[in-house]
């Protein structure tokens, strides 16, 4: 199964490493990733992940990370649109 996630993160040096580690430990493969720094001290991270496991195994653990302020599951077409807009900007 392919899943799309949109995360809002605090701008901390180690936050992306933590997200990647949790993703790997939960058995998900990242197939696409897009990251943008915000002006308000946050980072937006879009990820497309693939796994036969239930997405809740990953999203629940990501929400537990202290520097993750939001983790949303997006429909496939919504993330594709978001990634296309950020690539053209």
From TrEMBL:
Domain of life, source organism: Bacteria
A GO term for molecular function: acetolactate synthase activity
Top-level EC class as recorded in UniProt: transferase
InterPro entries: ACT-like_dom_sf
EC assignment: 2.2.1.6
Keyword Lipid biosynthesis: no
Record has DNA-binding as a keyword: no
Sorted UniProt keywords: Transferase
Chain coiled-coil ranges: none
Protein name: Acetolactate synthase 2 small subunit
UniProt gene name: ilvM
